[in-house]
Amino acid sequence: MARDVISMIIADHRDIRAIFGRLRREPAARPALLVELAAKLVAHDRGEEEIVYPEITRVDPREAEHARHSVDEHQRAEQSLLHLLDIAPAAADFEPRLDDLADMITRHFAVEEEGILPALAAALPRHRLEELGHAFARLTAEEIRIGLSAGNR
């Protein structure tokens, strides 16, 4: 299992992309997959906003604007996800909204993987990346637990 925060974030990106793939391929599983997507995406966003972005801004102030922009993108994506959750999976506008959300998130992931994460790797020693990984794992696990329990009510 990945222990540093960068590996964890990239693994989350891969997992979230896989959920989008399953949402497209498995229409019957969409209700459960949407709950999983919501829990994972919101937890991931909170982890970045509370652990990663403050740290990259602290060690490399030039990344502050990227961090602010990323928080804005998280808010837009979560708003789009809420709209998607309000649509019946069989509705005509479900797939176009799903595609829009997937595209938005995929672009966001690419920006992080090409900008913020390499800057973080360059700015911090390995032991600090592992410390951040532990904090990220704790926070996201708690957020996922909360999200999944709320989705099952």
Secondary structure topology:
Layout lengths: L4 H21 L4 H30 L4 H22 L8 H30 L2 H26 L2
Question: Could you explain how this protein is built, in words?
Answer:
- The chain is mostly helical.
- 84% of the residues lie in helices and 0% in strands.
- The chain contains five helices and no strands.
- The protein has helices at residues 5-25, 30-59, 64-85, 94-123, 126-151.
- The chain is elongated and about 50 Å long.
- 31% of the residues are buried.
- The model has no long low-confidence stretch (mean pLDDT 92).
Features:
mainly alpha, 153 residues
Brief sketch in words of this structure:
The radius of gyration is 16 Å and the shape is elongated. It has helices at residues 5-25, 30-59, 64-85, 94-123, 126-151.
DSSP strand (E) fraction?
A: under 5%
Envelope shape: elongated
Low-confidence stretches are: none
Helical content, roughly?
over 70%
Query: What Rg do the Cα atoms give?
Result: 16 Å
Give the topology string: H per helix, E per strand. HHHHH
**Strand element count:** 0
Number of helices: 5
